[in-house]
Here is the input.
Amino acid sequence: VQLVESGGGLVQPGGSLRLSCLASGFTFSSYDMSWYRQAPGKERELVARIIRFVGITNYVDSVKGRFTISRDNAKSTVYLQLNSLKPEDTAVYYCHARVWDSDFWGQGTQVTVSS
Here is the structure.
């Protein structure tokens, strides 16, 4: 299993970014996919999840209405659209999948929101 994130960067408050996570090594469409983030000095937290097959999504309260998770099963890719970014969104963002009862993580992509 391999998860490779991309799309992070430096953005001003109120700006937008789109993160991508390319998955390989498993049947992507058959598994839930999630995005987590970890800010300096804080624990890693679940940001958004998209359920396999039905595409139901859920979000942590702090990002509801601003972030959107989506997936393209044909491309084995999960996305996280980040809008109306705030300085408190600054963190390393990780793609996650739980496959065969094991947790798999990408290498992370840094998102920095600053003026």
Notes: The two ends are 37 Å apart (CA to CA). The mean pLDDT is 97.
